[in-house]
Amino acid sequence: MYRRCTISWLQPQPHSEHSPNATTWGEKHDVPSNVQSQQTLQEYIDACGQKLGWWSNTPAYIRSLLQAWYGDAANEEDGNCSYRLIPKMIGDHSHLVTSYAMLDGKVKGYLLFGQNPAAGSTNARMQRKALEQLDWMVVRDLYEVESAAFWYKQPGFGPETEPVDSSKIKTEIFLLPAAASTEKEGSFTNTQRMLQWRDKAVDPPGDARSDLWFVYHLGKRLKELYADSKEWRNRGLQSLTWDYQMEKPEEGSRIHDEPDALLVLKEINGYYVRPPDQAGKGSSQTYTLRNAPHIPSYTVLMNDGRTACGSWIYSGVYPEPGNNRAASRNPEGRTFPQWGFAWPANRRILYNRASADPQGHPWSERKKYVWWDEAEKKWTGYDVPDFPLNKPPDFTPGPGAVGMDAHSGSDPFIMKPDGKGWLFAPKGLKDGPLPTHYEAAESPVHNALYHQQSNPAAKYFRDRADNRLAAIGDSNYPIVITTYRLTEHHVSGPMTRWMPWLNALQPSLFAEISPELASERKIRHGDWVIINTPRGEIEARAMVTRRMRPLHVSGRVVHQIGLPFHWGFQGKSKGSITNDLAHMVLEPNVSIEEAKAFTCNIRPGRMP
Amino acid sequence: MAVEPSQDTLNGQGSSLRAVVSMLVGNKMPPLPQQPAMGFFTDTSLCIGCKACEVACKQWNQLPASDPGWTGSSYDNTGQLSATTWRHVQFIEHIGRREDGQNGYSGVRSDISGQIAQAKKDNVIPLIPPGTALPFFNTDRWLMQSDVCKHCANAPCLEACPTGAIIRTEFDTVYVQQDICNGCGYCVVACPFGVIARDERGTHTARKCTLCYDRMKDGIEPACAKACPTDSIQFGEVAKLKAHARERLGILHERGVKEARLYGVDDDILDGGLNSFFLLLDEPEVYNLPANPQRPSNNVVPASLWTILAAMVLGLFGIIFFRE
């Protein structure tokens, strides 16, 4: 329960609760996302690099990236390398913002790889409308997911589908069958930064192919199509290095034109374009991706075109032929350093110098992790030290030092210009410098701490008719709703709702509600209920459970309900699309949607 | 899987060769050499309810999916073990009533407790929601337990089987030979746990967990134990597993989980203990397990004696009244 804080300035101010102008999103409006001009290589480096700290290496990284992508063409454009060939950011290109651009007819074509916005993205009804505005769309998936079928069926009410007048939808859909994870080779990276290599077990069925195959052959055909073009805008495609052909097709496979995933990994890892001991551009000997020596790590990357590297943070994953560290499977050691490869540099915990005190001794003997070895004069421990190996703890930077030399021996946060961890973040965070409490974009109550109701920097799209938000405390939508996943299904179910074993475990959409709410609304356990928000209406079975509890907020009872969001109108197990209820309000930094808390209403019954 | 079977336990012992030889010379196949008893220790205090065991079991044993149907019984739509479901994760909602001022949750529940009572009277919410044990407990937990065949040391199903289809393997597990079972169903009523069932839609024979006999022959742990991400399901030699279970119980008691208890470890249950046993966090009945399961075969002797006695009494009556 909320208790009034004794600090007077934290108490809710009367006008924030009673101002007639108070909106759900507060009175201060969000700032449009400000994309810096990065039209030249120097502007890019100025914007993304830093004078102090590790980001002082930015020129070497971008130069090696351009070398990997454009090869010799990277040398031709003096001063700007081939940076001009890259399409530039001209606005907010995040997925959900792009959906609105699509709705406005500004996006003509769309390639959808294993995504299902028609059911899996917030405000899914709007998403489907947006897809209808495209000229063409390529969907690559294992099954005919909702995003590939919306042009001839739409969710009617509940799990039923309604025929759609396809003649009114101009989008031309190409559904291409994709290979499943067991049917292709490659790496995946999980959120602990670990890359693990996945072997191919069987050929994919029929015409199904890996995404790598698709992108490679699409690129080859595009290059062929524009090979003779004199247009400047096609120079990027013409210059692109694009040779990943397998030396000889995989034995026993009926697919003979699958590209070589290891060559792609080699490009990502990085390689020497010229022998490392030969300086400058004058050197005659150059390597291609196929015959070049691998680079051991991103620390050798140079900004003069002598090295190429597709992604510096992954560099070191494939340091020499035959040593794909993502494929290593040795479960030994305290931090399992030989199991897969954690970017960067196989470091399992970032900024791990902070596990030792400023003098370099472990904070705790029991939990010691990385420390300064006085005898050897270097950092050592159970992990790859995230610090210059020989920089002693008592190192003090000289006046005017730049790059890593600007950090002292007790500054563990090497990516930051000052080497310190930031609680107060003066730059970078759009809603910084300090975290604070905001109410959700839709909330039944006023912010009890500040005038500012909800995040002023978030993207609300409140001018959009199909993204209407309920007002604060709107009595039409008094109930808080949250959405979540079940173990049995994967997001909107594009892989799992076709799987009988999993469908038997979770066959139907349900809404979890408390006995108190059930009693108030005369809903019986197992009944069908209709849930509505300003964006849409869906039906679900009622699961009355004490796991859900009413909250006591600002002196009144606020009910909450919870729904999984795995269902749609395709697949072997069908149900309403929970995301039809969700609004599209995006967090300001990385445009994550706020689908975990919004408001709704609920009543017993089925949709007509 | 935490308890490793010893290396010599699980090798094939050239049994297929022996089978071929005995077929050629027409001999009855000699019994396979006895191995240490193998079993499961299902530690419900570690179960997170992911149901990976259910899916891994169905996949390895190629069992058909049950008909999808939403039960409303918490997150459990499987319902029970069956001829084609050999692992079943139960979800038991253990959510109590709140008193004022507990856990920062103040007042509301008592404010509307009258409404709840009224709602129950109106039959708006069920008195006991199916699959839950709500009204009886006062600590909030979501108990999860992966149920499975107990592979009893003295298995009632085996004792009831008239054809010899149900056998005890060299790993001391209980196994139904599908080519011998005639589908009579005596085992189904004999099992005190409701584990074994007849496959009414497929083979019409009795089927249940084999403890992945085919995998054990190759020295691999059962599919469910392999898939379990938290080691809630542990596989190994029963003797070692039981020692491990007692140790785990001690640790939990030491940490204040006083309600933890073992089920099926002691020999007094079902006259010999269970080779697949559990660590529970509440009374066995909460998990739909009988506190004191009975062997139907224990009734044989008294029932026979009573029958003989009845026959004798009837005979005596006959002698007395029909002497003419």
Can you walk me through this structure?
The complex is a heterodimer of chains A (608) and B (324). In chain A, the strands form 7 sheets. Chain A has a 6-stranded mixed beta sheet with strand order 14-16-15-20-13-19. A 3-stranded parallel beta sheet of chain A has the order 1-2-5, with no helix packed on it. The longest helix of chain A is centred in the middle third of the chain and has 15 residues, at 211-225. Mean pLDDT of chain A is 87; it is low at 1-35. Chain A has 13 helices and 20 strands. Chain A is an alpha+beta fold and 608 residues long. In chain A, 38% of the residues are buried. Chain A has helices at residues 14-18, 41-48, 58-70, 73-76, 95-103, 117-120, 124-131, 146-149, 211-225, 235-239, 261-269, 500-505, 515-521; strands spanning 109-113, 136-141, 153-155, 161-163, 172-177, 186-189, 194-198, 271-272, 307-308, 341-342, 370-373, 378-381, 479-484, 510-513, 528-533, 536-544, 551-553, 556-558, 560-564, 598-604. In chain A, strand 6 (186-189) and strand 7 (194-198) form a beta hairpin. The longest helix of chain B is centred in the C-terminal third of the chain and has 22 residues, at 300-321. With 324 residues, chain B is α+β, with helices and mostly antiparallel strands. Chain B is built from 10 helices and 10 strands. Chain B is globular. Chain B folds into 2 domains: 38-68 and 76-96 and 146-299, 2-Layer Sandwich (Alpha-Beta Plaits), CATH 3.30.70; 99-138, no CATH class. Mean pLDDT of chain B is 83; it is low at 1-13, 97-112 and 126-139. In chain B, the strands form 4 sheets. In chain B, strands 8-1-10-9 form a 4-stranded mixed beta sheet. The termini of chain B are far apart. The A-B interface holds A 1, 486-488, 500-508, 510, 515-516, 518-520, 522-526, 541, 543-547, 549-550, 552, 557, 573 and B 49-51, 54-55, 58-59, 64-70, 72, 74-75, 77-78, 93, 95-96, 104-109, 111-112, 115-116, 118-119, 123-126, 129-130, 132, 134, 142.
